[in-house]
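Feature request, filed as a ticket because there's no other form

It would be nice if the structure record came with a short human-readable summary line next to the tokens. Right now we just get the raw output. Example of a typical job, pasted below so the devs can see what we mean:
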Amino acid sequence: MTAPIDLDQLQSFCAIADCGSFTAAARRVNKTQSAVSMQIKRLEERLGNPLLTRDGRSVSLTNHGDALYARARRMLRINAEIMDLFSDGDLSGSIRFGVPDDYAVRLLPVILSNFQRTHPKIMVDVRCQPSEELIEGMRTGKYDLVVFTQGTSQEYGELFRTERMFWVASHGGQALTQDPLPLAAGAHCCWRDNAVEALNRIGRDYRIAYTSSNAMAITSAVLTDLAVGFLPESALQPGMRVISEDKDLPRLRDAQIALMRASHAYGGIYDALARHIAASMGNLEGKEAQPIAAE
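Raw output as currently delivered:
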């Protein structure tokens, strides 16, 4: 009978794929770089195919490595579920958690305060950044879990919420009547791409009047009538006027919100926080968070 694949080797392989470097992966799995290199060599020998391509200091997946990645993640998740099944200890530890600041003002305090009450021994260290920066932070080992907006350059995640995107303006303001239409948007933002694509589709003239990576700055620009904005339902703020589609503004694509994990962040405290976020914020009724990794 063929011996099973070493889960420790898969853990190191996924860490390298996540971090894009042997050095960063070694720090994440608490091993020396030489030990991680030896694990990958043995895994490649076992599978009979190269899994990683090394180009100077950077590392990328081969076609075989890409095929292995999602399946290795599933094995690590199942392993964590089995360990949890036979564990009777209290959940404790710390989680490095990232979330876009679009959701931080309205949703994050309630979600995390409720989690703290039910899991007092789990410490959650939170950082709010744009989705692209959170994804890059995950690659460099800064986070265990992040919430991010689907539609970014990263397609791996667990989708747990889909919601309407709305055009927003200030009540009684004049920005909506201006031509070209002044927009407030993030510097590197999939919502911006969504809005620009929709306006181009109907031939509506616009200009980017206000740019910031800070969600509160964008909100202020809208509320003070500097520009028109676009936000998902859960990020709408009091005082905003939601614009209907009869104002010559096109329908925007729905926002998709997903959870991303580091390759070690399965089971235990990580599943506890992931389940709490999905239950508190999710709208995929009767379903677990939906994996959207490429097979």
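Something like this underneath would help us a lot:
DSSP finds nine helices and 13 strands in the chain.
The mean pLDDT is 84.
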